[in-house]
Amino acid sequence: MAVAGSHEDEARGTRERLASELRRLRALSGLSGRDMAGRLGISQSKVSRIESGATMPSLPEVTGWARAVSAPDETVRRLVDITEQAFTEVEAWRTAMRDRPHLQDEVQERENKTWWTQTFQPSVVPGLLQTAEYARRVFSLFDEVPYGKEELAAAVAGRLNRQLALYQEDRRLDFLITESALRWRPGSPRLLLAQLDRIASQSTLDNVRIGVIPSDALAVTYASHGFVIFNGRNYGTGTGEDAEDENDSYVTVETVHAQLNVTGPDVAHYRRRWSRLAEMALFGDEVRAFIAELGAEIRGRGT
Question: What does the record list as coiled-coil region(s) (predicted)?
Answer without folding.
Answer: none
